[in-house]
Specification:
alpha/beta, about 450 residues, 7-stranded mixed β-sheet, homodimer, Rossmann fold, 4-stranded parallel β-sheet, 2 domains
Chain lengths: ~450, ~450
């Protein structure tokens, strides 16, 4: 039995896979303030043109520059592992594989896109990047990438995570990053929110507004903004996860998995694992592909498919996506990376098409799954990752009930060593089950009604 | 070029290597309170007999039970990596390899012995282990091992680390461990010290006393004590590191390294990497083997070779080792794992023989090395590990000066994600260079003079 399936450095994928080349209906274009589709050059104050080109590309395969691979080799190819100890514990006929993205320097999948983003910005002559971070995974990853590539890095960290995770800030500082709590007083967006909600726990939406504002208002023009999820080029960079996994499964004679699972906040780790397999599903393969979100922030399972801003201050274009509304203030659950009101338009389109079948799980079940993981596989997972593990356990139990030897593949998006306060809250009985109350969805409706309704384009057959 | 040298699961070492079979003069036997060598059965209240047998064994190869391997496979074999990015930065002709022990669930090399110790105790019918921890690496490792094997675990954590690293305690709790600050009021040893030094930062010596006291006073007889370093059987279990490294170097056609480096507190990670190569040195190979310690706790470089207790309350037998005195209270440096007054008798004997050539490095140089590592290799190392990196950088620079293509191998004993407060202190300028003042060594002399002088047995030729 293979517990660890390793890929040699020379077999690392040399191209990213762009699902937009194969989707029956690619996502609808973002809309500008005038309601018309935005033109690429309108994004130029925010992103460098080389990344904007990737953002709008429909080319199936995009070369990964050698200089980027040279950095990724620090931890990639990442191991594919078989969770034999969890299998034994569950006494399931299912085979459980997981892609271990926790082994990167920043401890999650995030450096897979932080590195190319920093590299393309540097190529374009940019000197400084701004960004937001929720749980801190993304901020650490970008600080790491900027350090190696030689850019300044400014991170707006959602207040609740900033307070719960003091060591995340230090981690960014070790890599030379400058991290402040959001909302901050450094930006107009931050000051406006603080005036309205002085005690706010913050949100990714607000932090994004602050980071964009600092990028576009830099008079030198040498600052750009970097986003760790949601956008097409971020999904693109993360496909290296699924491409490696596919090569690794093939190397041990496994066929395509029956079930693919990833936790989904903005969608990037889920997309990174699942998109290369979504292509197989479009071509007829029978794969169940499950993005998992918290019941406290049920974007894919309960929010409408709508046009909405990616940030709270409405600085981004309108994106066609599932959204709880850009003014949604998610409850302070510990899976900070899953507290986002929207989700990637590409993932949204896959859900519209029925290619992906989302699921919401309560945080209590997720922490129970995390403790089961710690006592079987031995590792401590990120609170976000626990959602993927909880769904995996559900599916492994179902396979046992059905007596079927299914193959499950999930993304182990990050470790939880910097997120132990969440475990503490759970173990000391301070957490309770939490599903978003219905009345919050009325607020969502009110927030979204000002915007155009996206056309639902569903082929429903691939 | 090979950046990652992986070893297949089927090639994992199946026996531990016991250097005592090959040392020209094995360490002198421990002495009991009467000054006579202790008999194995005298240790029975503290350790299970199966581990005591390993402690006194002179058998060269000792089989690793399959059940133990089944647990180690979670992260072993560990990768051997080439630090190409550091090499480039230093522009050195030296080839720098390191064994990555940071990838274990507890984040260090410590589970390599925690797992066998828990397993042998369980086999012997023991239900509960007590231990001490400095930086928290060992306590986490034993909690992890006990969780997987089904034992209770009680950890006395040195007060300064307990306060500096609140998340270490949570980490142990995730694995079901019970962690208290030492000195505690739970033991007589702890209460005595608290009365004398109410504001003490604690020390490993005190914490060991507390853990032993709780083990030997359990009326059920089902509790034993577990030590994470110093003892022969701990060194034995750690040799899997060096055995793997040797197989990995061989797999890429590298000969024996010219220089081997490890940080040394109690000596276990250093011994684990170096002992299998020390055998080659005894057989004539030209290898420089360097244990690195902090100038703040210079056991091997400035303390006498003496008989001393392993703990502050004098509960352990007298061990023949370099020692700063069992009542030594090390300054509160951030490399908690290197704040021990003594060091393994086996390592001590190697130093006596000239097989190992110790070096002390100041914490400022070590943190500078850690930041160099973070900006080149990208990973954040443990403060202990930074001592090995600092020595590696010294040797790589020397190789450059000499124009020699030397091969350096060091042990990357753990990551620093739980130790960021030390980085914080350094980056904010709160740390200063610190070498132990000479007058402290007078205290050492006074502490040790009551004990028999060990005979210095030095062959000096191997």
């Amino acid at each position: 039995m293979n517990r660890k399936i390793l890929l040699d450095e020379k077999d690392i994928p040399r191209q990213w896979y762009n699902l937009n080349a194969d989707l029956p209906n690619p996502p609808l274009p973002p809309l500008g303030p005038d309601g018309n589709p935005i033109r690429p050059e309108m994004l130029a104050p925010v992103f460098p043109m080389n990344l904007i080109e990737q953002e709008v590309s429909t080319q199936r395969w995009i070369d990964i520059p050698e200089e980027i691979l040279d950095i990724l080799y620090r931890w990639r190819p990442a191991p594919l592992r078989r969770a034999v100890y969890l299998e034994r514990f569950l006494d399931t006929p299912a085979k459980i594989y997981y892609k271990d993205e926790s082994i990167s320097p920043a401890g999650s999948h995030k450096p897979n896109t932080a590195v190319p983003q920093a590299w393309y910005n540097k190529q374009f002559g940019i000197e400084r990047l701004t960004t937001e971070t929720g749980a801190g995974q993304w901020g650490s990853a970008l600080a790491f990438a900027c350090r190696l590539i030689g850019l300044e890095c400014k991170v707006f960290m959602v207040r609740i995570s900033f307070d719960q995770k003091p060591f995340r800030k230090l981690m960014m500082q070790v890599w030379g990053g400058n991290c402040v709590a959001s909302p901050s007083t450094e930006t107009k967006a931050g000051r406006d929110i603080l005036e309205k909600y002085p005690d706010t726990a913050g949100s990714l939406g607000v932090a994004i507004s602050e980071a964009i504002e600092q990028a576009v208002t830099d008079p030198t023009g040498k600052t750009r903004y970097s986003l760790g999820s949601v956008l097409n080029h971020v999904m693109l960079h993360q496909t290296i996860i699924g491409l490696e996994a596919k090569a690794q499964l093939k190397s041990i004679g496994e066929g395509l998995p029956d079930i693919i699972i990833g936790c989904a906040g903005g969608g990037s780790n889920f997309a990174g694992l699942s998109f290369p397999f979504t292509a197989d599903k479009i071509n007829g393969a029978n794969i169940e592909i499950i993005p998992v979100e918290p019941t406290a922030c049920p974007t894919l399972t309960r929010a409408p498919y709508a046009y909405d801003h990616g940030d709270t201050a409405c600085m981004t274009p309108l994106l066609a996506m599932y959204s709880l509304g850009h003014d949604f203030m998610p409850p302070p659950i510990h899976a900070g990376g899953l507290r986002y009101h929207g989700i990637a338009p590409m993932v949204s389109q896959c859900v519209v098409e029925g290619l992906h079948t989302p699921r919401a799980i309560d945080q209590i079940e997720c922490y129970e799954a995390a403790l089961t993981w710690a006592k079987t596989e031995g590792f401590i997972c990120a609170p976000e990752t626990s959602h993927a593990i909880a769904a995996t356990i559900q599916e492994a139990k179902k396979a046992k009930e059905e007596g079927k030897e299914k193959t499950i593949l999930f993304n182990y998006s990050g470790h939880g060593l910097m997120d132990l306060s969440g475990y503490d809250a759970f173990m000391s009985g301070k957490l309770t089950p939490y599903s978003l109350p219905d009345e919050m969805l009325e607020k969502t409706e009110a927030c979204l009604k000002a915007y155009p309704q996206p056309q639902v384009r569903k082929t429903g057959k691939w």
